[in-house]
Design brief:
The chain contains 2 helices and 4 strands, in the order H-H-E-E-E-E. The protein has 111 residues and is an alpha+beta fold. Strand 2 and strand 3 form a beta hairpin.
């Protein structure tokens, strides 16, 4: 194999590995704010709109707010927000992560 192709392959693999490390995995994100300190869902919805999202569903899971939405280009997106600061903690733009369990609210969450 020519040397240039080996370098290109190596660079592509390295870039893919670094890209996967740049965004925290949504499954690992957990929040610990007591529910009486959570900001209201309406405030979270407004925060998501500021990001250019059209909100489809908001639920609570692992102590965080989870938002299912579409971005400004109409692509599916899911975000995890800290319930006290409403800071975006993680996001997934992949529409292949859909499953029946992800859409069901857990412990205290609803639209």
């Amino acid at each position: 194999m020519p040397r240039i192709i080996r370098h290109i392959r190596r660079d592509i693999i390295l870039a893919a590995i670094l890209a996967s490390l740049a965004v925290p995995a949504m499954a690992e994100v957990e929040c610990s704010t007591p529910m009486d300190e959570w900001k209201p869902i309406a405030a979270l919805r407004a925060e998501a709109v500021k990001l250019g999202w059209t909100v489809e569903k908001i639920r609570a899971d692992d102590g965080c707010y989870h938002v299912k939405a579409t971005d400004s280009a109409g692509k599916p997106i899911e975000g995890v927000f800290d319930p006290q600061s409403l800071k975006l903690l993680g996001r997934s733009d992949e529409d292949d992560e859909k499953s029946g369990d992800r859409d069901k609210p857990k412990s205290g969450g609803s639209n």
